[in-house]
């Protein structure tokens, strides 16, 4: 009889609406491989929690009904972390991690996360290779930013795009009720890649509709040109809605949000961006006699389960399942990737890509998908994004509110 081994799964980085759907896929595929997999462990708060001995036996601590609810539950069920493993493979932390793997009979490691999480997958797989460890390590992508390279798109982006398009359309409707000139600035997530903000184009009900201006970090932002463009539009338009990425920056690389103060940094050295919408609101107040307000959508972009894209949920589950299948096939050091299949109808398949080529890279919106003057997004983006927001995910509603699964304590 073939020996069974255990699998451990973790979630890392910022949550998405569908990161738990990928966890669901991992669990379901591991259960179906009972001839090879015994226990399914979940890291509590990612690799950092695992290092500290914080984990759970998923099948012992979750009912079948709770596992099913993962597909419609936002946030990260297992908790998350932003933890950077040491660059030096000589650090004793690696030895400690792999000693835990051995002690717990773990042969399979699967990590659901974004760019920095793939850095963890890459480092662990390199150490495993150097020490001839039998542990296999795979990454499952997630990010609302859609900035992971070597994949057509990432789980989480479709639902974020659907939320942004829906909410911006609502804002446009609200902004148009008064017959007085007004400017509404909507600040959206996106540090160096403008995929989320570009999704606001899907809010337009017809050609030439609001939002009239869309600014992405892929193109240098000029405050004076922005004011002139708003002034020009106000000559013929009453209500103007503008969508901006939090990471828009000037030609010298200075973030616009830094014009009014210095941004802090996180564990990975990334600047924590916020406030460009408020800054631009104040600039308009200073230069133009018009009603103006700014709106920051903030974390709703990554946790609005009621607006989850069914396509996104289904693909997140598929990615989790494919990750487990790949581990059982002996693959390691890779990330699950989506490949769009050519044809009249939208379809994607999964493949594996080298994690070392994914981590610490960023995929940006192609320049040819942005207007020459950098104030709008073109039809190529619309054709790319529309299939990703399709469909509505089913939710269980009790007393008018959605039912989620969560860890107690």
Low-confidence stretches: 262-268
Rg value: 22 Å
Q: How large a portion of the residues is in β-strands, by DSSP E? A: 15-25%
Distance between the termini: 39 Å
Order of helices and strands: EHEHEHHHEHEHEHEHEHEHHEEHEE
Q: What characterizes the major β-sheet?
A: 7 strands, mixed
If strands are numbered along the chain, what order do they take across the biggest sheet? Answer: 3-2-1-4-5-10-11
Total of DSSP H or I helical runs spanning 4+ residues? 13
Structural class: alpha/beta
Rounded mean pLDDT score: 95
> Which range best describes the helical content: under 10%, 10-25%, 25-40%, 40-55%, 55-70% or over 70%?
25-40%
The overall strand count is 13
**Rough outline:** elongated
Structure description:
With 409 residues, the protein is an alpha/beta fold. 33% of the residues lie in helices and 18% in strands. It has helices at residues 19-32, 46-51, 58-61, 64-69, 92-103, 115-130, 157-175, 195-198, 223-233, 276-287, 300-303, 310-328, 379-385, and strands at 5-11, 37-43, 55-57, 106-113, 136-141, 182-188, 213-215, 239-245, 291-296, 334-340, 348-354, 397-398, 401-402. The strands form three sheets. A seven-stranded mixed beta sheet has the order 3-2-1-4-5-10-11, with helices on both faces. Strands 7-8-6-9 form a four-stranded parallel beta sheet, sandwiched between helices. Helix 1 (19-32) packs across helix 12 (310-328).
Present the secondary structure layout:
Blueprint: E1 5-11, H1 19-32, E2 37-43, H2 46-51, E3 55-57, H3 58-61, H4 64-69, H5 92-103, E4 106-113, H6 115-130, E5 136-141, H7 157-175, E6 182-188, H8 195-198, E7 213-215, H9 223-233, E8 239-245, H10 276-287, E9 291-296, H11 300-303, H12 310-328, E10 334-340, E11 348-354, H13 379-385, E12 397-398, E13 401-402
